[in-house]
């Protein structure tokens, strides 16, 4: 294929698809919500107050849900709110309350890894953006057709086309769940064993646990 | 659907949101009083104290709005709105009658309702943390623990009905509803209602606001209008929970003369369930924190899973 042919192809494609220069209302809203989400995300990682970071995370995750909604993926949007805002953030706040997060700024929460974290974030963002832009460069979704992201369509895609990855993910999550239970029960299982002493300290109890674990292994 | 139609629907939802929680509150005043051998409010408004809650509202509005000096000001002030507004949004998708009598049909209605109701609890957590008060913090902690335990059985019970109907849309579920779903889904209904009570922190699941232990939990430092908003959120929550249980498990507008009186059936079922919520408050002692967790994980979750299995089996058999 010569250069001119490639150029013609690009022109034909551009003519067939809507361009970036005359955005529709939905596209403008999409970009604005995206900017707000980005802003909330940046505040999440830069604010000095721990609980404020968690609350800004709510705004960022909610913004992502609105983006899903604008792309007509209604089911995904509500699941995003249900799982992330309703459960993950509640868990985060629970943890912060348990550790008595102070009202004011928490200067000791800054680990000094800021440059490294920034570099890692920039590299991963660049990789993802390049990948997504390259993969979907000329793909246009017509949002006008009804039911593109409806529950039925999502469910059929998930349980017909993508059922194997879905099941693999379930097994992975189950493994994580079982692992968490094993880790949290390990200390308790050995406690009846050192009951005869009555005055065993915490450290000796842990030592016993380790030895029991080795003996069983 | 033109702009005027949308406006009328939103106005109707707003009116329901402003009136129904007050009706439940007044019913609680009177029903609780009579169950305890009292008469309750008798003077405000003249006839059996019908305007008591209006008078309460005027009183709350006159009080000084205090923010504790050690509190996180913005989060403290924002919390009541976060607690209240989700219930207003949820009311939009609950179908009252057959066909067109719903604010807006949402394709994944069940998920929408549960997701938005989950956001409301953030208000209690924000208030609990931002008050800079140890009782508030304890209340917030208990709220979070309770929410995490009861969200799962509630979701599973709702999923069972969605499985039975083959749709997540609330009007769609009602269109598919038959009378024999009542015994078929009864276990799921009980689980949903109980988990909903716990999520609203209503007695017997009111350990997060236990007055004899932690004063008033996350709301200890609130006064005036913001405190009233938290109270209103509780009663709006009762309305939403009762209406949802009626729609998902009791058939909503189904009943004799459903063509013309469908909306009466929905309101009647909602009112009966709201009365049960009040009744439970008067008759049951408060559960301890560990009992609350045990009820969720060892009773409600297995029951909800059993209901899902039953729904699946019956669904396969009748097809």
Automatic annotation (TrEMBL), chain A:
Region: Disordered, residue numbers: 188-217
Record has Protease as a keyword: no
Catalysed reactions, as listed in the record: a quinone + NADH + 5 H(+)(in) = a quinol + NAD(+) + 4 H(+)(out)
Transmembrane residue ranges: 28-46, 53-71, 77-96, 116-136, 162-183
Origin superkingdom: Bacteria
Class of this enzyme: translocase
Compartments, record wording: Cell membrane
Entry keyword set: Cell membrane, Membrane, NAD, Quinone, Transmembrane, Transmembrane helix
Record's bilayer topology term: Multi-pass membrane protein
Statement: the UniProt record of this protein carries the keyword Membrane: yes
Record EC number: 7.1.1.-
Function field: NDH-1 shuttles electrons from NADH, via FMN and iron-sulfur (Fe-S) centers, to quinones in the respiratory chain. Couples the redox reaction to proton translocation (for every two electrons transferred, four hydrogen ions are translocated across the cytoplasmic membrane), and thus conserves the redox energy in a proton gradient.
Family of this protein: Belongs to the complex I subunit 6 family.
Protein's name in the database: NADH-quinone oxidoreductase subunit J
Species the sequence originates in: Streptomyces daqingensis
TrEMBL record, chain B:
Membrane topology value: Multi-pass membrane protein
Superkingdom, natural source: Bacteria
Name of the protein this chain belongs to: NADH-quinone oxidoreductase subunit H
Subcellular location(s) per record: Cell membrane; Membrane
UniProt family annotation: Belongs to the complex I subunit 1 family.
Reactions this protein catalyses: a quinone + NADH + 5 H(+)(in) = a quinol + NAD(+) + 4 H(+)(out)
EC number: 7.1.1.-
Organism (species): Streptomyces daqingensis
Main localisation: membrane
InterPro entries, alphabetized: NADH_UbQ_OxRdtase_su1/FPO
Transmembrane annotation, as ranges: 6-25, 78-97, 109-131, 152-174, 180-198, 227-250, 262-283, 295-318
Annotated function: NDH-1 shuttles electrons from NADH, via FMN and iron-sulfur (Fe-S) centers, to quinones in the respiratory chain. The immediate electron acceptor for the enzyme in this species is believed to be ubiquinone. Couples the redox reaction to proton translocation (for every two electrons transferred, four hydrogen ions are translocated across the cytoplasmic membrane), and thus conserves the redox energy in a proton gradient. This subunit may bind ubiquinone.
């Amino acid at each position: 294929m010569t250069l001119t042919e490639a150029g013609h192809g690009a022109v034909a494609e551009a003519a067939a698809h809507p361009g970036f220069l005359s955005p529709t209302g939905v596209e403008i809203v999409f970009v604005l919500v995206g900017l707000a989400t980005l802003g909330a995300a940046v505040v999440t990682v830069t604010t000095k107050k721990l609980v404020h970071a968690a609350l800004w995370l709510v705004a960022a995750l909610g913004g992502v849900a609105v983006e899903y909604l604008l792309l007509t993926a209604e089911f995904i949007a509500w699941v995003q709110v249900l799982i992330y805002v309703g459960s993950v953030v509640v868990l985060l706040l629970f943890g912060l309350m348990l550790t008595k997060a102070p009202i004011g700024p928490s200067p000791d929460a800054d680990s000094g890894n800021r440059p490294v974290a920034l570099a890692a974030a920039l590299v991963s963002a660049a990789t993802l953006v390049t990948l997504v832009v390259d993969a979907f460069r000329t793909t246009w979704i017509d949002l006008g057709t009804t039911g593109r992201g409806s529950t039925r369509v999502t469910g059929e895609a998930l349980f017909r086309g993508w059922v194997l990855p879905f099941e693999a993910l379930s097994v992975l999550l189950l493994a994580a769940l079982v692992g968490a239970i094993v880790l949290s029960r390990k200390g308790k299982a050995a406690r009846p064993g050192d009951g005869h002493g009555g005055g065993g300290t915490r450290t000796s109890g842990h030592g016993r646990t380790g030895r029991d674990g080795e003996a069983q292994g | 659907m033109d702009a005027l139609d949308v406006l009328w629907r939103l106005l109707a939802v707003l009116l329901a949101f402003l009136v129904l929680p007050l009706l439940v509150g007044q019913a609680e005043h009177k029903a609780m009083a009579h169950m305890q051998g009292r008469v309750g409010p008798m003077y405000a408004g003249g006839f059996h104290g019908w305007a008591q809650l209006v008078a309460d509202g005027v009183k709350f509005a006159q009080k000084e709005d205090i923010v504790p000096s050690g509190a996180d000001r913005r989060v403290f002030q924002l919390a009541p709105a976060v607690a209240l507004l989700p219930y207003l949004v949820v009311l939009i998708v609950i179908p009252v009658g057959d066909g067109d009598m719903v604010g807006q049909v949402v394709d994944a209605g069940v998920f929408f309702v549960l997701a938005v109701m989950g956001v409301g609890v953030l208000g209690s957590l924000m208030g609990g943390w931002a008050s800079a008060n140890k009782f508030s913090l304890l209340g917030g902690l208990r709220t979070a623990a309770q929410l995490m335990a009861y969200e799962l059985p509630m979701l599973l019970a709702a999923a069972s009905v969605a499985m039975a109907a083959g749709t997540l849309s609330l009007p769609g579920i009602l269109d598919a509803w038959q009378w024999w779903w009542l015994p078929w889904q009864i276990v799921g209904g009980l689980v949903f209602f109980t988990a909903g009570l716990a999520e609203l922190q209503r007695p017997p699941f009111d350990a997060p606001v236990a007055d004899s232990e932690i004063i008033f939990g996350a709301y200890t430092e609130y006064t005036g209008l913001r405190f009233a908003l938290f109270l209103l959120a509780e009663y709006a929550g009762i309305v939403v929970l009762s209406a949802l249980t009626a729609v998902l498990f009791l058939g909503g507008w189904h009943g004799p003369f459903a063509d013309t009186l469908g909306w009466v059936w929905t309101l009647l079922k909602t009112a009966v369930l709201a009365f049960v919520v009040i009744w439970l408050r008067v008759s049951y002692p408060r559960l301890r924190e560990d009992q609350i967790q045990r009820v969720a994980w060892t009773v409600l979750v297995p029951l909800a899973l059993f209901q899902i299995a039953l729904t699946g089996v019956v669904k396969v058999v009748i097809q």
